[in-house]
Design brief:
Length: about 725
């Protein structure tokens, strides 16, 4: 309570009260129009009771939101979208009861359906808010939401004409609609709604709506006075809401009246009632998101769901339809400086006053004005989603909105939303199938592992590297994308212009998941590999993806041509080693030693002997730390046999392999030349023999044998340049 009182700022009291009064008066007109939408045609005899139910629901939901909502100044209301759908259901209930000769009470049956829907919707709101499901609204396709709102606009448009004319608005009623007796009933309201929507698109003043409503009432009675038509005659002609009983309007469904409810008439409308529950949840969250943007304030969506849930359960117990937070009136309240709970309480109090004391006054309300307000609401949805959306949405999304609208108008509301959702899913599959799931296409020539190799090995990989195809995959792999990947691989195998493929590396590092159809495609891909003697190498598999592949029949060890490695680097290294060992020049792969490299670099055995005098021979077992990250560089090492790896400690206890080096390679040269601290550690992977060239020995070589030192420096420059060129090729391939 203390927090609530702190929101009432004395300096803003006048603006808060004025805003609350304006919102409340507008809300009365709005709720009466909603009641006239539901209780029209054959149900118009119950309009007074219907107005009472709607005003009661608006007051109850308003009180709950005022007390427990997360954003002060939020204005709730009985909503037009669910009401438009329920108007169809109510008419269907009436027709069913009349055609079957039901002995049930029509009014109590309709109210029971209203209560049932509101209470269940409230329970859904509560559960969704309690378990934090508000974020799921973002999974609803935007065009489907647009089609739902466009369909709502059509139902409101049609309902407005029905309210004003008294016709059921079937195709057979269209000729009657344009008779002189009917034109005077609906044309003024239609013009009012049309002028209102044109004005609202031209001017954004917060008092525009209240001014039009009050001005419309004054104009209506001014015309009656000028034409000399008494109020009683206007009422008898159907121009006014009619004479209401001189008592409180609210007549809820009593427990004893349940025996007079025809449940068999409600049952066929289950689909429409369920659609109201689902779409109300979506609409509430969309309204709340829109209100965040309009007010520039954060809203607790789960709290708003629970608040609206409580309000609907209480309102439903009293016979009220579904209601929740609005965008328009809430934004209006904040723009007028009424962003306080007091604003909501004042507007709610006016609804309560109209409910208990306003029956006589409401009977003088012009029916054309109510129909015009509904006409305006319907047109606003249609203009936004049929006219404005044509410039705002992609063509396929826009066509989907129109398809939903046509199905809603021709078949039904629920059918339109279901069909729209199905079409949206199909469009998603088609569009997502066009998304490139191959992040990068590399070969053994453009990408090589971090294994440092002698010059001859690198040259051989340059010549034969196109026999290794590397595909870095991304996104979610499903039947629409995996088949395209399979087709691309098949085309590569049979391309006569390309070198024979010997290894296919599929890197899954950026793959989120895959479906069963994708697993089948990979199985077929492996069968192609086996037939064409190609190794299929899968790298960076998550446990989930590896389990799916295993379930599909891809098992490492059992399949000769299927291999799994923890990273693309290790997979590429295995392919390179295999390529080198199987090549006709494989002798250099087995004979990679320091002596073998020196024979190619130094011109004579005498130079080799002179060079070896400056080196210190060292022998280490596996896992020995040759160089420690962070130490000052004072030597470089030439690997004679075995293998060492450069590791970077990215955080305490976690290392990343940067490069592996075998016989005939050099490590630690960068730190020695730059005279900086070691940027990585060097660890022996196997039993290794290395030769150490210290900083002092190198300086002594430069002084005693400058020609030998020059040859050595030239070797280092060439090695570093080739390493840089290889990195540039890899980077260029990734960027392209």
């Amino acid at each position: 309570m203390k927090n609530y009182l702190s929101e009432f700022v004395p300096q803003q009291f006048i603006s808060t009260v004025v805003t609350g009064l304006i919102i409340g008066l507008t809300g009365i007109f709005y709720h009466i129009s909603i009641a006239s939408l539901i209780f029209s045609g054959g149900l118009s005899a119950f309009l007074a009771d219907g107005i009472g139910l709607i005003l009661f629901g608006g007051a109850i939901v308003g009180l709950v939101v005022a007390l427990f909502g997360s954003l002060p100044g939020t204005i709730p209301a009985i909503q037009d979208s669910p009401a438009a759908v329920f108007a169809i259901a109510a008419t269907a209930i009436l027709i069913h009861m009349q055609s079957t000769g039901s002995t049930g009470n029509i009014y109590f049956t309709v109210v029971a359906a209203i209560s049932f829907t509101a209470i269940l919707t409230g329970i859904i709101f509560l559960l969704a808010g309690r378990f934090g499901l508000s974020s799921f609204v973002r999974f609803m396709p935007y065009p489907v939401v647009g089609g739902f709102l466009a369909g709502t606009g059509w139902l409101l448009f049609k309902g407005a004409l029905s309210v004003m004319s008294g016709l059921s608005m079937k195709i057979s009623d269209l000729p009657s609609l344009f008779t002189s007796g009917q034109l005077i009933l609906w044309l003024p309201g239609a013009l009012f709604g049309l002028i209102l929507i044109l004005a609202s698109r031209r001017f954004r003043h917060p008092l525009l709506m209240p001014a039009f409503l009050l001005g419309g009432i004054v104009l209506f009675y001014g015309i009656l006075f000028a034409a000399g038509i008494p109020v009683a005659e206007a009422s008898s002609r159907g121009l006014l809401l009619g004479a209401f009983p001189q008592k409180a309007l609210w007549r809820p469904l009593q427990f004893s009246a349940l025996s007079m409810v025809d449940w068999q008439a409600i049952l066929p409308q289950t689909g429409k009632l369920v659609s109201i529950m689902a779409l109300s949840t979506i609409a509430l969250l969309l309204n709340a998101n829109g209100l965040e943007l309009a007010t520039h304030k954060d809203i607790d969506l789960d709290r708003e769901l629970m608040t609206a849930g409580l309000g609907n359960i209480l309102g439903g117990l009293g016979g009220s339809p579904v209601g929740y937070q609005t965008i328009g009136m809430s934004a209006l309240a904040h723009r007028m400086g009424g962003g306080s709970r007091l604003t909501t309480l004042i507007s709610t109090a006016l609804l309560g006053a109209a409910l208990f004391f306003g029956a006589a006054l409401l009977s003088y309300f012009p029916k054309a004005l109510l129909g015009g307000l509904l006409f305006y609401l319907g047109l606003s949805f249609l203009v936004e989603w049929v006219y404005d959306a044509a410039r705002r949405l992609p063509i396929l999304d826009y066509l989907l909105v129109l398809v939903i609208l046509v199905i809603v108008a021709a078949v039904g509301f629920l059918e339109g939303v279901i069909a729209g959702t199905i079409f949206a899913v199909i469009l998603f599959v088609v569009n997502y199938s066009r998304v490139q799931i191959i992040k990068d296409v590399l070969t053994g020539k453009t990408y090589q592992s971090r294994k440092e190799r002698p010059i001859e090995h690198r040259q051989l990989l340059e010549d034969s590297g196109r026999g290794i195809l590397i595909l870095r995959l991304q996104g979610y792999l499903f039947f629409g994308t995996a088949q395209g990947l399979l087709n691309r691989f098949r085309d590569r195998i049979h391309d006569p212009k390309e070198e024979r493929l010997r290894f296919l590396i599929l890197d899954f590092q950026h793959v989120s998941s895959l479906d069963t159809s994708a697993v089948v495609s990979f199985t077929r891909m492996y069968q192609l590999c086996e037939t064409n003697h190609i190794y299929l190498v899968a790298t960076t598999l998550s446990p989930k993806i590896q389990e799916l592949l295993n379930q599909g029949g891809l098992l490492e060890g059992e399949d000769k041509y299927f291999k799994i490695f923890p990273s693309m680097d290790y997979g590429a290294e295995w392919c390179e080693n295999r390529l080198l060992s199987e090549d006709t020049r494989s002798g250099i792969f087995k004979a990679a030693t320091l002596q073998g490299q020196l024979k190619k670099i130094l011109s004579s055995p005498d130079q080799i002997e002179r060079f070896m005098k400056y080196l210190e021979r060292l022998e280490f077992d596996e896992s020995h730390e040759l160089i420690n990250q962070g130490d000052l560089a004072d030597a470089l090492y030439l690997v004679d046999s075995g293998q060492v790896s450069a590791q970077l400690e990215v955080e305490p206890g976690r290392f990343v392999r940067l490069r592996s080096m075998g016989g005939g390679t050099v490590v630690g040269e960068v730190g020695l030349y730059l005279k900086e601290k070691r940027t990585a550690s060097i660890i022996t992977d196997t039993h290794s023999v290395v030769y150490r060239l210290s900083e002092g020995s190198l300086a002594r070589m430069e002084q005693e044998d400058p020609q030998l030192a020059s040859v050595f420096h030239h070797w280092m420059v060439r090695m570093l340049a080739e390493r840089l060129a290889n990195n540039n090729r890899t980077l260029e391939a990734l960027l392209n």
